[in-house]
Design a protein that fits this description.
The structure holds two protein chains of two kinds. Chain A has eight helices and eight strands, in the order ββααβαβαβαβββααα. By secondary structure, chain A is α/β, with parallel strands linked by helices. Chain A has a four-stranded antiparallel beta sheet. In chain A, strands 2-3-4-5 form a four-stranded parallel beta sheet. By secondary structure, chain B is of the alpha/beta class. Helix content of chain B is about 30%, strand content about 15%. In chain B, the strands form five sheets. In chain B, strands 5-4-3-6-7 form a five-stranded parallel beta sheet, with helices on both faces. The interface between A and B is large, with 56 and 79 residues.
């Protein structure tokens, strides 16, 4: 996985709550056996009409937000299905950071595995950033992972929390499986003992 | 003496293979269920890095999302991408030597129905699958949850998952349910109460008299939708019903192993005074036959209610409700029992088990679906289908005008040809009413199997308590 670099850029405002993974990437695009190429179908049914034409009002179709690297979203972003196609599509589009007052559990974990940083902030701070994001290309939101800060255009800075292990994996671009493989002895030992105690498993 | 523990604490503690200083754990996985949609990239990852499946004997694969459910499906899958995905699972299962139930096998079905049916799912286990409805297996007192594809690859390679422990939440349903009220109404009412983010960060233990009184099928329905409440997992303490259900299944322990397993399973209960970080209590007798009106599973109301007004909500929900009502083509104040439907779907990992089909058939016996109604029953597995045929349920469905299909996920998520057209309105026994879930522009009302059957007859969302001939 590539290392996470700090981001300073345009943020797309998506104030709708409960944006689910069916919205992020509808099921007809889950038939791929690859991880790449899903960006064009990100938010497909909100972004295109049934003839495939762009829907002008949709935020990522507006000129200011076409190259957005950040999304500021309503509560409970990423709820629903476990499909990792959701972060794959966001990543492929160019989204590096999502800011919300809460995320669904599986989506939150899936994001880190793909170099996307989901940031949880209190609602009133999300509201400030949402308002900022609505200024389009006149606004720049800056995310500093090392110092765990998000800054609005006017410099207002918010601190965010992130699990230290997840942070390290993002900053160093670490591969989870490789890390776990270093602990294979612990797994072997556990498995042997466990198998003895619970032979039916 | 150690501190009192919840079932979740006990199962967690029994599976920690490694714990880092910061509390990050490697959790050992007992059963890894695999389907065709979320696994191809994981198997490909193994291949690229020269890794193998660490425990193929604990890995069970079955195609379900893409498979056609029409009777002629032996001829193959028309949609090329779907076909490639199922073929990839055929190939990966063979190459990596995992247990496999191909489309042609009578035991094939929805992965969350096949697992329990074959005795793969047992109390006290950790069960994962690249599918959010893995929560279903919690009905057995197992810790079961959905994972993403990167985690699928991680489990395939290491038989562990990198995890931090969730908090404990108790959802207690006291007393008994009233007539016409089912497990589906319990689980939907809980989500209506807590919201879809109410369980985020928690593992839920469902308990109380109404839960104890449910069959194993009903308990699976309840746990299935724990994810719709945002929880990592939902589980229920195993009891005699659990043991009776498990005993004799193909992969359940036998002989001395059974005795040892049973002795262990009987320790899987929440200790008195164990700590819960959050407790929600509902009275069983307060739960009504329920239906969703919006595009989030939290948009639940009793069937005798009216469509709500966006102005009755607060915060971000005001806009979300307005958007939902527009999408659903509903007006605030409209009676839910006046909402006309044109499609009925009975099936899914939520309500595709034999008991669900029995409940629907009991309503349909001797009746016909409304003219012009499209109605289908998609059994959760080939074995559920066979049993329903043996019990005469299939004939009842067919006589009523339902299509009697082969097993699969089908119209729950519409990855196969079973889809809604724009504007079509479906009474569905599945688990998600999201925009576009059952097909672009399709409108979904979630409800119980009996209520779905009644709606097929009347052509409208129907209060099962007032339906003629209802049990």
């Amino acid at each position: 996985m590539e290392k996470f670099e700090n981001v300073s850029g345009v943020a797309a405002p998506m104030p709708l709550i409960n944006i689910d993974t069916d919205m992020i990437i509808p099921k007809q695009f889950l038939k791929t056996i690859k991880r790449s190429g899903l960006g064009v179908n990100l938010f497909d049914e909100m972004r295109y009409d049934d003839k495939g034409n762009e829907i002008e009002d949709f935020v990522l179709n507006q000129p200011a937000y076409r190259d957005a690297e950040i999304i500021v979203a309503g509560d409970n972003f990423g709820c629903g299905s476990s499909r990792e196609h959701a972060p794959w599509a966001l990543k492929d589009f160019g989204i590096k950071v999502i800011i919300s007052s809460s995320f669904a559990d599986i989506f939150y974990n899936n994001s880190f595995k793909n170099g996307i940083l989901p940031i949880v902030l209190p609602q009133e701070q999300v509201d400030v950033l949402m308002e900022d994001a609505q200024k389009g290309s006149n606004a720049r939101i800056t995310v500093d992972l090392e110092n765990q800060t998000v800054s609005a255009t006017d410099g207002t800075e918010f601190k965010f929390e992130v699990d230290p292990f997840k942070k390290e994996c993002l900053m160093d671009g670490l591969d989870d499986i490789g890390l776990t493989m270093q602990k294979v002895k612990a797994i072997d030992t556990f498995e042997a003992e466990y198998g003895k105690n619970m032979p039916w498993v | 003496m150690s501190a009192p523990k919840t079932i979740y604490d006990k199962i967690w503690d029994a599976h920690v293979a490694h714990e880092a200083d910061d509390g990050t754990c490697l959790l050992y996985i007992d059963r890894h269920l695999v389907h065709e949609v979320t696994s191809p990239q994981a198997f490909e990852g193994l291949r690229m890095s020269g890794r193998t499946v660490r425990a193929p004997e604990k890995t069970i694969a079955v195609p379900d999302h893409n498979v056609p459910t029409t009777l002629d499906r032996a001829k193959g899958i028309d949609n090329e991408e779907s076909r490639i995905q199922v073929e990839a699972l055929d190939k990966n299962a063979k190459e990596f030597g995992v247990h496999y139930y191909p489309v042609s096998d009578v035991r094939q079905g929805i992965v969350h129905i096949v697992g329990p049916e074959q005795g793969w799912t047992l109390p006290g286990m950790t069960v994962v699958c690249g599918d959010s409805h893995t929560a279903t297996h919690g009905a057995f007192g197992a810790l079961a949850h959905g994972i993403g594809t990167s985690e699928v690859e991680h489990v395939l390679a290491t038989q562990t998952l990198i995890q931090k422990k969730s908090k404990n939440m108790k959802v207690e349903i006291t007393g008994s349910l009233r007539p016409g009220v089912t497990a589906k109404d319990i689980t939907m009412s809980v989500i209506g109460h807590t919201g879809t983010a109410g369980g985020t960060g928690y593992v839920i233990e469902y308990c109380g008299q109404a839960i104890e009184e449910l069959s194993m099928e009903g308990r699976m329905t309840v746990c299935n939708m724990a994810i719709e409440g945002g929880a990592r997992a939902g589980l229920i303490a195993p009891d005699q019903k659990t043991f009776d259900y498990v005993k004799g299944r193909p992969h359940a322990p036998k002989g001395a192993d059974w005795d040892a397993a049973l002795a262990y399973w009987k320790t899987l209960f929440t200790d008195e005074d164990a700590h819960f970080d959050l407790v929600v209590t509902l009275k069983g007798e307060d739960i009504a036959p329920s239906v969703t009106w919006g595009t989030s599973p939290e948009d639940v109301l009793p069937i005798d209610a009216v469509v709500p007004n966006p102005a009755d909500f607060e915060g971000g929900k005001v806009d979300a409700v307005a958007r939902s009502l527009e999408y659903m083509g509903l007006e605030a104040g409209q009676k839910l029992t006046d909402v006309e439907i044109d499609t009925v779907f009975i099936g899914s990992c939520t309500n595709g088990r034999i008991e669900d089909l029995r409940a629907a058939a009991a309503v349909l016996k001797g009746k016909k679906i409304k003219d012009g109604m499209r109605a289908m029953v998609v059994p959760g597995s080939g074995l559920v289908r066979a049993q329903a045929e043996e019990e005469g349920l299939a004939e009842i469905f067919k006589d009523a005008g339902f299509e009697w299909r082969m097993a699969g996920c089908s119209m729950c998520l519409a990855m196969n040809p079973d889809q809604l057209a724009p504007g079509e309105r479906c009474a569905a026994t599945s688990n998600r009413n999201f925009e576009g879930r059952q097909g672009r522009g399709g409108r979904t009302h979630l409800l119980s199997p009996a209520m779905a059957a009644a709606a097929a007859v009347t052509g409208k969302l129907t209060d099962i308590r007032e339906f003629e001939g209802a049990a």
